[in-house]
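Open question from group meeting: does this chain pack into something compact, or does most of it stay loose? Before anyone orders reagents, we agreed to write out a predicted structure and look at it together. Recording both the input and the output here so the notebook holds the full record.
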Amino acid sequence: MINFIFSYVNQIRYFIYELVVLRIQRTKFSKIINKKNPKIDIILPTYQRAEMLFERSIPSVLNQTYKNFRLIIIGDSCKDNTEQIIKKFNDDRIFFYNISYRKKRYPESPENHWFAGPVVAINKGLEFIESDWIARIDDDDIWTEDHLEKLLDFAIKNKSEFVSSSYIVEKKNEKIIKNFKNEKPAIGGVQTWLYISYLKFFKSNINCWRKKINRVNDLDLQDRMHRVGIKMSYLDDVTCIIQPRPGESEVGSKAYLENKDIYLKKYKFYE
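Structure tokens returned:
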């Protein structure tokens, strides 16, 4: 009951604040959507997954056909060789910031780590936004080479503030296309999001795990954006590839539940 009341009040607070600020931002920055060759800031939260950065996410970003971007990688107090791996790419479009400490943020469970794990890193990344558009990718995702180009062209053509697309899951010798065009609203996975930079005031909710529905941080965020009337469009093309991480057979929440002990140990907060 406490979580229900907290979440209800919190959602009202978000709605009022975001509705008011959205109207102000639209008035101040409406010309961004018509800007030629706009710059894109890409937020990539990570924690102890240097291998995934090296093999998947960073190469897929650097191989984009659209080149005017900056990759903002936020380490959630990484203690592995993440920084060294990033430096190997020797690309001045990559910016890395490592949060100094992982203090406790919610009750530790595999589910809660899935729901709210990257929130602090994502919100820190939003503090560094300087460009015209914002894109999101996770450290184990792979974009198609034309991901940014397709989404940006689609957003500008449709005068949209937020666009997303389909993605494909490759696992167990099968390929499953995740298409959301028939959903209401039609919104693709967070790794397919591209949205205009004046929406950077939309912060991820560290208390999303308390909710009854839309408990994953990105579902909570897209629901709030939709409720206040963000102009959204859905591109019915696959622009992202999702695969199980090494040693795992599932993706998403199923991977966390399939390897509970491993993830509880991996994501344990510092004392």
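Observations to bring back to the group:
The longest helix spans residues 2-29.
DSSP finds nine helices and nine strands in the chain.
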